[in-house]
Amino acid sequence: MLMRTDPFREIDRLAEQFFGTAARPATMHLDAYRDGDHFYAAFDLPGVDPDSIDCTVERNVLTVRAERRRPTGDGVELVAAERPMGTFTRRLFLGDTLDTDKLEAGYENGVLTLRIPVAERAKPRRVTIQANGGSRREINA
Q: Any idea where the SHSP domain is (predicted)?
C-alpha cells in the first residue's frame, strides 16, 4: 500500500493557489512561434483524450478546451491524486495577419499543435514604381 507523509502541507496549499487544484486546474502550458509563413501554437495536454479537446476561433480569439478525467468504474480505488483533473481552458488573441480559415490542428504524444498560415495580405510583396521617364523599378514593400 502507498502511504504519503507530507511535512510541507502549507507549501502545497500555496502552490495550489498559483498552479491550480483538481477542482480548478492550472492553465495549460503553451509554446508559440512563427516559422516562415506559418504561426504555431503547441499546448501541453498529457493524458487528455483527443475527443475531449475543443478548439474554436471567433473574431480572432482562439479558444482551446480540454478535459482530463480520473479513471472510474467498479474496482477502481484512488490511492493518490496529484495530477490536475477537470476542464482546462486557454484563449489566445490572434492578429489580423493570420488566416484562421486555414487553421490545422494535430494531437500527438500529449501535445496539441495548431498551425495557422500567415495571411497573404501580411506577406512582403514587391511594388512597381514608374519614374517620369517611363522606366520601371521594383522595391520591396
A: 21-132
Domain 23-120 has CATH 2.60.40.790: yes
pLDDT in tens, 11-46: 765 666 556 555 555 668 899 999 989 999 999 999
Which amino acid, 90?
R
Residue 31 — φ and ψ, nearest 5°? -120, 135
128-137 own/partner pairs: CB under 8 Å, 24+ apart: none
Inter-CA distances, 121 with 58, 101, 116, Å: 20, 14, 14
Mean pLDDT of the chain: 81
Q: Which of 122, 124, 113, 55 is nearest to 95 (CA)?
A: 122
